[in-house]
Amino acid sequence: MSTYHYLPLDLSEVKAEINAAVKEAFAELEKKQSAKPVDDEIYTLAQAAKKLNVCIKTLNNWRNAGLIKSGKVGSRVYIKHSDIELCIVALNSKKSRP
Fold this sequence. Notes:
mainly alpha; Multidrug-efflux Transporter Regulator, Chain: A, Domain 2; 3-stranded antiparallel β-sheet; Helix-turn-helix domain-containing protein; HTH_17; DNA-bd_dom_put_sf
């Protein structure tokens, strides 16, 4: 059987302990949230192709080759802005090679 020990605490001490625990939990949650990209826009294939200045067929070829990540919702394909930027960086690094 467990034994419980009760410490004599007044209401203000209990409130202070709870307040400190809640503040600590919110600070930790805020740290985790700030590490994630806040506003990562999502583009359709047509929008992404226009942003990359290529045709949709080329964009599909890049998707199939693994040059750019995409996601599907039902039958529709979407590409995140951050993935478009990564693709641009990858393409620029390939161009700079001899």
